[in-house]
Every structure is written in C-alpha cells, then in structure tokens.
Write a structure and sequence with these properties.
With 257 residues, this protein is an alpha/beta fold. It is built from 10 helices and 12 strands. A hairpin with a 2-residue loop joins strand 2 and strand 3. Helix 1 packs parallel to helix 2 and helix 6 packs parallel to helix 7. The longest helix has 14 residues.
C-alpha cells in the first residue's frame, strides 16, 4: 500500500500566511518561509503554497518568495494561484517549485492541462478543484471560490486526468475551515474514479478526521491548514496516531515545531 501523505497548506496573501473559514474572514498566521521550514522539520511530507491574491503586479514578489521557499525547504512543495500559461509554470518551476496547481485557468481553457502535461510532465501538474455541494450535487467553483461553474466535480476530475493531470487537489468549500471533518463522499467518489493521487482538503479538525479520509474517503493525501497553523494537531503525533491504526505513513524523528 502506498504511503499516505500529510500536507500543510499555506495560503499567502500580501506576503503573509493567512487562514479563513469557507474561503472568507482571513487572518494572518505567520511568515510563509518560516512556517514551511518548521513544518518540514516537524515531519510534513509536502507543502502547498497558494497565492490567493495573485495579480500581474504581484507576480515578481511571488516568484521571489518561491525562490526563498526553495532555498529553505528539503521537502517537495507545490505552488498555485493566478497560473494561466506555460510561461507562468516555467517561471515557477525555475524558481524552485516541484509542482504547480492550476484551477480557474484550466476550467476556462481545459486544453491548458494537455499543454502543461506535454511541456513539463504530468508529475508536476496538479489540478485543484474547489467544489461546493448544492442540492445534492457537487459543483466546481473558480475565482477563489467566488464563481460557480456548470461543471460537476466528479466529471471534471475525470476529464482533467484524461488530459494529463498527475494529481487532484480536491477542496470541499462546505467544509473548508470548519474543522468538522473532510467531505468523505465526494473524496471517495473521485478517488475511486481516477487513477492519479487525490489530495483531500477542507474540514480537518481532529486526528480521527484524517483517519476517516484515508479509510473511508480513499484519499492518497490529506491537506490541512488551521490545525497545523494553530498547533492543534502536531504532525508527528498525527503520523504516530495513523501508523498505530494501520495507515502507512512516513515516520522519522522530526524536530518539534
């Protein structure tokens, strides 16, 4: 059985890590470079950095931040936010990112997934799917969760994998920041229908929630922010908890955060 991954997520706004609830009410929680380094020492398997205020004007600042992160980290990291072209991806990978995450741009132009996979390889193309359940169905949202599309999450996940995506980052907007547990049904549905790893995101509040999303949600990785940023769940303790319950995880002797 493949090792399950624990991935802290750092949403970056104006150079600072922030966290909100249901994609709103943002609060600053620390320096993204220092936080990332602390998570790496604590045993995180990977990190995801999302520039949630990405603009053309801020692109140079963001690239410089990615370079600083790459110089500091010894674990893989993914970056996303405002990526809309081959040139954007080329710049981020040159700055040191291991993978890139795309969302709004590929919903508007699905062929971009094919293009990125051909140019850089599927292994570094992560398609982020922000989804909200409404009237029994899961709909895809773009523009940082502000705009609903007419795409359904499961069908969209299958399409982007067919086009060359190497990984799916699936975020339930209903659960994001609530700490009430992951969306197990849609996570399981996507995990069973695609042949690439699925990262579950949105709703982690306890160690049991991570256990559930691996066992019942069939996720390959679990991503969280609040419980790590605020020290609610130490990563080393979480991994020990999961290992004791039969979930294969990478265990080391991490340094305390």
């Amino acid at each position: 059985m493949l090792t399950r991954r624990i991935i802290p997520c750092l949403d970056v706004h104006n150079g600072q890590t922030v966290k909100g609830v249901n994609f709103v009410n943002l609060k600053e929680v620390g320096d993204p470079v220092a936080l990332g380094a602390a998570y790496a020492r604590a045993g995180a398997d990977e990190l995801v950095y999302l520039d949630i205020s990405a603009t053309v004007e801020a692109r140079k600042t963001w690239l410089e931040l990615v370079r600083r992160i790459a110089e500091t980290l010894n674990i893989p990291f993914t970056v996303g936010g405002g990526i809309s072209s081959v040139q954007d991806v080329e710049q981020l990978l040159k700055a040191g990112a291991d993978k890139i995450s795309v969302n709004s741009a590929v919903v508007k132009n699905p062929a971009l997934v094919d293009q990125l996979a051909r140019e850089f390889g599927s292994q570094c193309v992560v398609v982020a799917i922000d989804t909200r359940q409404e009237k029994g169905d899961w709909w895809v949202y773009i523009h940082g969760g502000r705009t609903r599309t007419e795409r359904r999450a499961l069908e969209w996940a299958k399409e982007v994998v067919d086009r060359g995506a190497g990984e799916i980052l699936l975020t339930s907007m209903n659960h994001d920041g609530t700490q009430q547990g992951f969306a197990l049904d849609i996570t399981r549905a996507v995990s069973e229908q695609v042949l690439v790893p699925v990262i579950a995101s949105g709703g982690a509040g306890s160690m049991e929630h991570f256990l559930e999303v691996f066992r019942e949600g069939k996720a390959d990785a679990a991503l969280a922010a609040s419980v790590f940023h605020y020290g609610t769940i130490p990563i080393a303790e979480l991994k020990a908890f999961l290992a004791q319950r039969g979930i294969p995880v990478r265990l080391e002797n991490p340094e305390p955060v």
